[in-house]
């Protein structure tokens, strides 16, 4: 889920899928979003012969995102740079593990392999390794969604209030 722009690193995700071993040929990737890189990403999908495995589904209405996430076995954030990607927390909230690059709050949020794995940005091979590790793991969806409750707006406000109280 994300705009089809360079900063999101979708080209590395597409390449990573192309590098998966043949026993993972049933892995299907849906990319939700729109942007100026749509033509380039479609070209990469064709270049790697992945037209039957990678689908650019266009932008989905916000009320459909949870349905897409809940049907996923894994959510991947392949960004080159991020701040605090909301989709990270939404995915965890749905109980879906995340593979994400070491950008923004991704590494801090996925500090335990109980919730997902972190890899280097701009590195398709490292992304592939994290995806493979994730696909072979038996995830505990309930534990992942419980963990996500640590990242609500209420929790964020409580943490900020604690900081302000300490300063005062």
Description:
- With 168 residues, the chain is α/β, with parallel strands linked by helices.
- 45% of the residues lie in helices and 12% in strands.
- It has eight helices and five strands, in the order αβαβαβαβαβααα.
- It has helices at 10-19, 38-47, 62-70, 86-93, 106-109, 124-135, 141-148, 153-167, and strands spanning 29-32, 54-58, 75-77, 98-101, 116-119.
- Strands 3-4-5 form a three-stranded parallel β-sheet, sandwiched between helices.
- Helix 4 links the parallel strand 3 (75-77) and strand 4 (98-101).
- Helix 1 crosses helix 6 and helix 4 packs across helix 7.
- The model has no long low-confidence stretch (mean pLDDT 94).
Strand content: 5-15%
Give the strand line-up of the largest sheet.
Answer: 3-4-5
Please give the count of helices: 8
Tell me how many strands there are. Answer: 5
Largest sheet: 3 strands, parallel
What is the gist of this entry?
The chain has 168 residues and is α/β, with parallel strands linked by helices.
């Amino acid at each position: 889920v994300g705009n089809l722009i360079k900063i999101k690193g979708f080209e590395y995700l597409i390449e990573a899928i192309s590098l998966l071993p043949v026993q993972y040929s049933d892995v299907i990737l849906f990319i939700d979003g729109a942007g100026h890189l749509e033509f380039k990403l479609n070209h990469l999908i064709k270049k790697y012969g992945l037209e039957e495995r990678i689908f650019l589904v266009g932008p989905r209405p916000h009320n459909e995102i949870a349905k897409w996430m809940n049907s996923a076995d894994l959510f991947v954030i392949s960004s080159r740079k991020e701040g605090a990607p909301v989709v990270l927390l939404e995915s965890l909230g749905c109980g879906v593990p995340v593979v994400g690059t070491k950008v923004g709050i991704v590494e801090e949020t996925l500090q335990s392999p109980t919730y997902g794995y972190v890899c280097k940005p701009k590195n398709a091979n490292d992304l592939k390794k994290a995806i493979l590790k994730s696909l072979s793991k038996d995830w505990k969806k309930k534990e992942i969604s419980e963990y996500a409750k640590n990242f609500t707006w209420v929790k964020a406000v409580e943490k900020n209030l604690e900081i302000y109280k300490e300063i005062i």
